[in-house]
Amino acid sequence: MPVQPAHPNATPFLARLRQMQDQLSPTEKKLALLILDTPIHLGSYSASELAQITDVSNATITRFVRHLGYGTYEEARRQARLEADAAGTLPLPPAAQASANAPNSQALWQAQQDKLRATLAQIPASTMNTLAAALHRAPRVVAVGLGANHLLAQHLCQLLHTALDKPAQAQPAAGTTLEEALTPLARGDMLILCVLGRIPPAVQTLAQQAQQRGIALLCITDLTSPAPTSDWLLRCDTSAHAPMVGHLLDTSAAHTLVYGLVAHTVQWGATPFELE
């Protein structure tokens, strides 16, 4: 199949990488996972340097970028650098990096406020209203999350149970498997996927099974990761405020979002809003 060259309005590099990773060869997939899971910024390395630090061949680098839709490595590198410059994520010189990593509570709180604003600003009121109605009417809710996402799922279920006395379970629970998450659900119930970061294939499969069974599906993820087809999609800013904590998944905006969603649902139940 001919490869279409990227253009300035193309899908962002990391989003494209996540979308395409399952279509890559094993060696290319290894390279993709290294870029996604470690602080490797494509814009900072030549093709030969990237091949050396990731232990792949130059030919693999060439095939890799072409499979992502770029004509050359330099084209991919240029887009990655432009996006990193815009986001302020390119590696800094040692002195600047030390300054960026220095404890600064004022900068921390400002960054947290900015992330929350970025998360909430993109969610239309109509989406919040339809979600509130669906959550209120769903007989049962299951929220699925792995790792740090499981804490988000637990938080959401605890809020639903406390505020609405609604049967809500965070899965997978102790002694259960992910495959059992759909067991308590039937048509008309709701499944909520908490998938900030890369989405495991097993969760993708779960989403497909839920839709086949007529279960309403809400997906909560980060700003750039690919998401399964769902009835509702909420994206949260999870970016780190400093390079030193870049390996930590910031779920603070997501936790505020799920609180807001449940609070909105409580209000909707008391005085149903007119849905557009």
TrEMBL record:
Coiled-coil intervals: none
Q: Sorted alphabetically, which keywords does the UniProt record give?
A: Glycolysis
InterPro entries assigned to the protein according to its UniProt record, in alphabetical order: Homeodomain-like_sf, HTH_RpiR, RpiR-like, SIS_dom, SIS_dom_sf, WH-like_DNA-bd_sf
Indicate the transmembrane segments per the record. Answer: none
Alphabetical GO biological process terms: glycolytic process
- For the keyword Transmembrane helix, the answer is no
Domain of life of the source: Bacteria
* Name of the protein described by the UniProt record: MurR/RpiR family transcriptional regulator
Q: Which organism is it from?
A: Comamonas denitrificans
